[in-house]
Design a protein that fits this description.
Length: 162
């Protein structure tokens, strides 16, 4: 089994990130969302990194098998976006956990105090994963004002980092 490596996003991986995320959303979970609905995926550096957040990818032998993004919000808050792992790298392979640990470590080093995220009701395993990693269910109405709500998201979480 090849080793999973987590690295900060590099432009050369843009198409692989799109090829990872779209089929998971559309085919695996039947979410009605297209690349046109997610222009941030074609501008990761501009949308995530240059705005004070970050974006990481999980690689196995040069192939993108996971992703996670951090959006910088006001008041020492951050939002987790675009967390995906290829089906064969979920569970015991720990790709999601490695990505989340990388993001949380970065947040603690950079003075973030809270993380927020939204997900889709059908993603039950993702919800279980977040709860297992210290996130608590949160009301949509209580999300930070500068958190960008996605139409498809129906379940929300918060995690205190301090």
């Amino acid at each position: 089994m090849s080793e999973v490596t987590i690295i900060p996003f590099e432009e050369q991986y843009t198409s692989q990130v799109v090829e990872l995320i779209l089929p998971i959303q559309q085919e695996e979970f039947g979410i009605d969302i297209s690349i046109e609905d997610q222009p941030d995926l074609l501008n990761i550096k501009k949308e995530y990194i240059e705005t004070g957040g970050n974006f990481w990818i999980a690689l196995v032998e040069g192939k993108v098998v996971g992703s996670i993004a951090l959006v910088a919000l006001q008041n020492h808050n951050g939002a987790i976006k675009k967390m995906f792992a290829a089906k064969e790298y979920r569970g015991e392979k720990q790709v999601g956990k490695k990505l989340l640990d990388t993001l949380i470590s970065y947040c603690k080093d950079h003075g973030y105090e809270r993380l927020y995220l939204g997900t889709v009701d059908v993603l039950k395993a993702a919800q279980k994963f977040y709860k297992k990693n210290g996130f608590e269910l949160w009301e949509k109405a209580e999300m930070p004002q500068d958190y960008h709500l996605m139409d498809v998201d129906t379940v929300f979480f918060k995690k205190e980092l301090v």
